[in-house]
Amino acid sequence: MATRTRKPVRSEKSSGNVFADLGLPHPGQELLKARLTLQIYRLIKARGLTQTEAGNILGIKQPNVSALMRNRSGTFSVERLLDFLTALGQDVEITVKPTRKEHGEVSVAL
Questions:
Q1: Torsion over CA: 31, 32, 35, 36 (sign)
Q2: 19 Cβ contact list (under 8 Å, min separation 6)
Q3: Rounded to whole angstroms, how far apart are CA atoms 81 and 67?
Q4: pLDDT for res 2
């Protein structure tokens, strides 16, 4: 029986933002949208809502809720995702402060 030699697995350290690592445009905004969408998903699941019930609360049609539940937030703006969170009974707080870096960054604390 022939022995197999293992090839070393190549990896590189992540920047902490998969969208930046993939070279996508506006990675900070995409990460923000992904995190907001995840929170919306968690709230809908925790309440045991159907997609139709969630759509009625959010003011969107069921197919759009389905897209959100599959983390397909591309069609929704950050502002719209924030509106969904408030419709689901969440308070949203935005804090702006000076940065010590050359450029500021966007982050979400859930």
A1: negative
A2: 26, 27, 28, 30, 31, 34
A3: 13
A4: 66
Number of domains forming the structure of the chain: 1
Tokens 């930046």, residue located: 20
CB distance 69 to 84 below 8 Å: no
Q: What is the pLDDT along the chain (110 residues), one digit of tens a residue?
A: 667 778 888 877 888 888 888 888 888 888 899 999 999 999 999 999 999 999 999 999 999 999 999 988 778 999 999 999 999 999 999 888 898 988 887 777 77
Strands (E), 7-109: none
* Residue 82 belongs to domain spanning: 49-92
What are the Cα distances from residue 62, in Å, to 2, 11, 35, 39?
55, 39, 21, 18
